[in-house]
């Protein structure tokens, strides 16, 4: 049995400890570098007058991916160097990894497509964590963006996971600003000019509100009469808000519109039908028949038969 080379073992242990120490320092520098990157990106966004919410979402998305990728690279390097210190030849491992990677490239084309698509989604800043998006017809809050998948959570709490390569359509509803489009129906008898004045007054009052006012970016737009519906006239408009604030602002706007319409007697239509009779229906002719003075022959014969039956 060959004698153990304790000096070589101690040297390998020291080297491994140094490698782990260097890896810890590298991870620490990575974290500090990401913090500094966040600060620099925030300063540039402030200089460009971008909304703070948009800045925060973009910073969170990019730094999350950089942190994830950096840790993965450090881990792979540490494993390879530690194996080399333990006497395991890493040349065949690297060669085998290259062959495996080539095989995976041919056999797992969908995986490669997902990674490439995810890279361009992140590079082009199409969607970020915290956005509300519609992916392939499914809407929800973007919780995670990875190089391979995009994760949505809808209003019911259901989590939807989409491979990036399978995303055919992506609609970002909270990119830079959002809009609440409303369609208000009023009765045909109402003066539409007066109704529009009331809507504009409610919008101006909402913009001065200390709670909802900061979420509104511009004065409300009233496009005018949009269409004639079955039971009323539809007036269309839009409120431009900060990202993801359109729904809360829109609900408060509709609440105030209902109160304002009730106060001014403006009728909000509901489905109903009105029947018109073209002409009165003429009376039906009616004729009384004269009362018969004699009993019919058939009735006399029937009465005679009944009398014979009782007598017999």
Provide an overview of this structure:
With 312 residues, the protein is an alpha+beta fold. The protein folds into three domains: 102 residues, Orthogonal Bundle (Helix Hairpins), CATH 1.10.287; 60 residues, SH3 type barrels, CATH 2.30.30; 87 residues, Alpha-Beta Plaits (2-Layer Sandwich), CATH 3.30.70. 51% of the residues lie in helices and 16% in strands. The protein contains seven helices and eight strands; from the N terminus they run H-H-H-H-E-E-E-E-E-E-H-E-E-H-H. The strands form two sheets. The protein has a five-stranded antiparallel sheet. A hairpin with a 3-residue loop joins strand 2 and strand 3. Helix 1 runs antiparallel to helix 2 and helix 5 packs across helix 6. It is elongated, with a radius of gyration of 40 Å.
